[in-house]
Write a structure and sequence with these properties.
TIM Barrel, 2 domains, two-stranded antiparallel ribbon, 12 strands, 42% helix
């Protein structure tokens, strides 16, 4: 099992990446969300210039807000600073688009986006249309890779955030790995792998044995006798746990879909929905208020929704060191190769150092 951290990137706090390397983490993912955080690539550049071992990448880049050649160019620039230890996590932009009141990228456009990315990041030439489909295609390639502007001599692995069948097939066709949430079952993980193999087969590719599987989660090592919902635990994991409530709200607001709401959280969901209905912002703009603090900090009025049921349902690694290690062994047996932790910004250093000392050191 590899251990990563998803960092809420703040340009003034890039030294956290240096500290993660010292703590022994394998990789660090910079979250990409243009209305919420600092620019992921700017922060990654600072991290790349000041580290030597830890792998660095986006967690995950938002396809709809940048053209595919621009994303390839940005991550290849980071690769020039840290050759061979850079990866690109990429997704359709659920949060980054929803926080602007927009929909994520459609699966067909995402597939085309990945096709162009993969070719460019392997130093190739590829036919490209600006809007992905409707316009006339032209051939593009990086013209000056040998002059030190970018590095595509060391191919950048592409880790695709995918859950639906079309996105999974695209991941199999053009990705080097997949990112998912940590609470997925063994059956769902295996089914997803089958669908990705189908996607690889469709383009004459064999899904490599080294195909990477990572899961985004959060953790807190309990102190002796401590409750899962102590103030300290909520301070550390509250923002990430609450992000699931934001996700459920977005699906419900879009078309009334509550199929992803965990059964053990139905009462909690009803209480949260009632809470959002009393928000001051009009419904058409309420996404701004719902996503306030998303994965970075927890608004005080949302603390009451961080319950043991929510932590359990979202796959949070909260428990004693032995309990967390058992959870990790189970996930590794299910096929996961990496977990990436996302704690609250204010508690990140203490939370991640504690996890490194009490869990990673014993794993």
């Amino acid at each position: 099992m590899k251990f990563g951290v998803t960092v809420v990137p703040r340009a003034s706090d890039w030294r956290l990446f240096v500290e993660l390397e010292a703590m022994g983490y394998d990789c660090a993912w910079a979250a990409d969300s243009q209305m919420l955080y600092s620019d992921a690539y700017a922060v990654l550049a600072l991290a790349a210039a000041n580290t030597s071992r830890i792998r660095l990448g986006t967690g995950v880049a938002v396809a709809p807000v940048r053209l595919a050649p621009v994303t390839a160019h940005s991550i290849a620039t980071i690769n020039q600073l840290a050759p061979g230890r850079v990866f690109l996590g990429i997704g359709t932009g659920h949060t980054a688009m929803r926080v602007m009141g927009k929909d994520p990228m459609r699966a067909g456009s995402f597939r085309e986006y990945l096709r162009v990315l993969r070719a460019l990041l392997h130093g190739g030439e590829v036919d490209y249309a600006l809007d992905g489909e409707g316009q006339e295609h032209s051939d593009i390639r990086f013209l000056h890779p040998a002059q030190g502007f970018i590095d595509v001599a060391h191919p950048v692995p592409i880790y695709v955030a995918a859950d639906g069948p079309l996105a999974l097939k695209a991941a199999g066709a053009y990705g080097d790995g997949r990112v998912c949430s940590h609470n997925q079952t063994r059956a769902r993980l295996q089914k997803s792998l089958e669908v990705m193999r189908e996607g690889a087969d469709a383009v004459g590719r064999t899904l490599p044995d080294a195909f990477h599987t990572a899961a985004l989660t959060y953790a807190c090592v309990l102190e002796p006798g401590e409750s899962m919902t102590s103030d300290r635990v909520i301070d550390a994991v509250g923002p990430m746990a609450a992000a699931t409530l934001h996700y459920w709200w977005e699906l419900y607001h879009k078309d009334g879909d509550t199929s992803t709401v965990a059964g053990r959280c139905r009462d909690l969901w009803e209480a949260y929905l009632a809470f959002t209905e009393k928000m001051e912002m009009p419904l058409a703009k309420r996404y701004q208020q719902v996503h306030l603090g998303h994965c970075a900090f927890l608004p005080a009025e949302e603390r009451r929704f961080i319950t043991e049921d929510l932590i359990r349902a979202t796959g949070g690694l909260v428990g004693t060191p032995d309990e967390i290690i058992a959870m990790l062994r189970e996930r590794e047996a299910m096929g996961l190769q990496e977990i990436t932790l996302l704690p609250a910004m204010a508690e990140a250093r203490r939370n991640l150092s504690d996890f490194a000392d009490k869990v990673i050191a014993r794993y």
